[in-house]
Amino acid sequence: MNSFFDLHYAAQILPALLRASMYTILITLIGFAIALVLGLVLAVLRRSPVKAVSRTVGFIVEFIRSTPLLIQVYVLFYVLPVYGITMSALTAGTVGIALHYACYTSEVYRAGLNGVARGQWEAACALSLSPWRTYSGVILPQAIRPVIPALGNYLVAMFKDTPVLSAITVVELMQQAKNIGSETFRYLEPITLAGIFFLLISVTFAHLVRRLEYGLRLP
User: Domain named ABC transmembrane type-1: which ranges (predicted)?
Assistant: First the structure.
């Protein structure tokens, strides 16, 4: 047995950390799916010709982007129950991280929409296409493809931000590692394994995003 890094102890705690990593991946995927959809809605609303809508959405996006995720999940979990809105720690954490990153993805989408040639918008208008057909059939296929790498970066960033949710008692990967360490007073093995899991899963996410980008590339 190595007194510096106990391989036998590491093997014992590995199943618990694997379960926590699956839990963390689930939170990330659900939160990112919400962020992708909500971010697109926010980006479209921010382009609304109605000033009240575009400015309100712009303020909300900038406000959420400019405040820490930790404060936002604290508000969802500890403050909202005072006003009758109660959520479980898992729900509050998932909603919080999804809303936070939806505002970032909305800016990515907005950059993609602004990158579509003005002639495409004018052509859709000349053909009397409805707003839905304009976006779904003409604009979004051109706007989303170039911003896939940026969206993928936020997927990895969201995964690495999940330890913040431990502040509201969500037992994700890092919190599980800390719990194991507090039980045995050996932190080296669980923290090291958690770091390795974060590295491997982040690299896997990044690889999948690159594969998606390659599959959607223009001929």
Answer: 21-209
